[in-house]
Amino acid sequence: MGVQRQRDPVASLFHALVVACALCWASSARCVEGQSQTGQLSVDASQQNTRKIPDKMFGIFFEEINHAGAGGLWAELVSNRGFEAGGPNTPSNIDPWLIIGDESSIIVGTDRTSCFERNPVALRMEILCDSKRTNACPSGGVGVYNPGYWGMNIEKGKVYKVRLHIRSSDAVSLTVSLTSSDGLQKLAAHTITGSKKSFAKWTKIEFHLKSSQNNTNSRLQLTTSKTGVIWLDQVSVIPLDTYMGHGFRKDLSLMLANLKPQFLKFPGGNYAMGNYLRNAFRWSETVGPWEERPGHFNDAWGYWTDDGLGFFEFLQLAEDLGASPVWVVNDGASLNEEVSTATVASLVKDVVNGIEFARGGPKTPWGSVRAAMGHPQPFKLDYVSIGNQECWMLYYRGNYQKFYSAIKAAYPDINIISSCDRSTISPSNPADLYDVHVYTSSSNMFSRTSMFDNTPRSTPKAIVSEYAVTGNDAGKGTLVAALAEAAFLIGLERNSDVVEMASCAPLFVNDNDRRWSPDAIVFNSWQHYGCPNYWMLHFFKDSSGAALHPTTIQISNYDQLVASAITWQNAKDKSTYLRVKVVNFGNRAVDLNISVSGMANGIKNSGSKQTVLTSSSPLDENSFQQPEKVVPVSSPLANVKQQMGVSVRPYSLSSFDLLLEASKHASI
């Protein structure tokens, strides 16, 4: 998320008006201002007036906020797997790990005896009881358990890969099991055994557990009934079945893939900066073997991250989604600190090294690290964003020029994104793109459909990398917020000659740790749903690289309608469609006459469809109880002609996809 977030002062007033209209609509009372009317939408589909939308127009922005990655998209089930979250001083807090057994049978703490130099903290269990009657352990043994991120979702028949490191002062008989939250229901178990000699030194153990039952609120247990001291470190449980086999939670990844994102911007936001630089995202500490990554405290959003979802994984996710990675680098600034331009050189070198990690050959110093991780071919990293809305900070412009010069010297083809606005860009302060963030009320967001109408038609172009409706009418993701954002995106389509890319924020929220609302996708350990603004994005997923046609709306005394038209091609069957999108942001139904001129090819008699996103109230939201309360509904579109009438419902987003005889305008 951006550094500064301002909410529009009229949000509360607009919210009251929306509620009043919603109540009127929901009760089926026909207010005077709710009567339907007619309008005219003209589409100029002539080749000479057609313009191509940028190939990477619509993408996604991922920030580690709301436990979006740790306990979310990254499929690791164990929270604080390396016992580092409590800090380097031991004994330390081991939260969320808890102890099985009382102090007469087991003493658990941490020490600095790990075999990993960058992760020195390990868990030490001193077992005082045994299997004998004199000091018998309780049934099932003693040990520790980890509930994961608000419960582990364990599914019947699924296989889970378990990895951990063990050292012991004596022979080992340690049972690793997946159980219900109270430990009474055993879903899968494996017992690790070995002599004192076998575990005298740190030993890595790997095995698979196959669950016999379903349980959405499970935990991992490590128990024993054998006296002695056992040390544990880097305890991991991850499903074998992940997206593309690369460690991403499959259901959440498919939600992203279905949007067909053309770029993935990462890792933040404030997460990239940190409240303090010591807690900023450091790319080099998030690559290499997962056990050797030190992890860090995400002080921007208040939780520990093991950095299993690191720089390599973000690049891999972009590749798996078919999206271009956009890396937001730390430029020496946090929310509370700055590195001066005179001393920023080491950070500049670090970023250039990071680009080498992504793009360098497998024999280069950092490219070899990537290759050792299983990806010898370079990633296609073409965009680097310098900082996160920091132009107002003292040293930003001086630091930016240092980063710009060094990156361009080594990689002249990389597109560099500035945090400063367009007015500051000049030959002496160059940029390929400039970053724009928009957080505002729904009424103001709707009005910003014309935000770029008067922008000079020259470079650099904008990347609107963060936009969202906030305030009272946004709720946890309302229909009216989604419609306002849709209108804004239509404005970006129309102005795609000066806007290159766009993505919403935030993308994910774990419902157990909601730090920001609204969000596009809500999830917990076993469920997920898309908010209305997630489903709204589906109306734009075919726009990147499509042909844009001029549109004109004529309607009397009603300024709540915006529209765009594109010609796009279905990648699967190569069918070509003319898509007309219409946002009705008001409470009047509109009988709209659509007139298309300049078409080189006709419309087929069948195969066209209309899709509508609406609900019974503009403040409706989706939820775990009603995950599809506000979702797009498609139906065949009959009597399709170059001039035709359609009905546009109040508070709705509609698309009319007209199947064409040929696809000459799919791209230009």
From TrEMBL:
Keywords: Extracellular matrix, Glycoprotein, Hydrolase, Secreted, Signal. It is found in: Secreted, Extracellular space, Extracellular matrix. It comes from the Eukaryota. Residues 465-652 form the Alpha-L-arabinofuranosidase C-terminal domain. Its EC number is 3.2.1.55. Pfam families: Alpha-L-AF_C (PF06964), ASD1_dom (PF22848). GO terms for molecular function: alpha-L-arabinofuranosidase activity. Residues 1-29 form the signal peptide. Its main location: secreted. It catalyses: Hydrolysis of terminal non-reducing alpha-L-arabinofuranoside residues in alpha-L-arabinosides. Belongs to the glycosyl hydrolase 51 family. This is non-reducing end alpha-L-arabinofuranosidase.
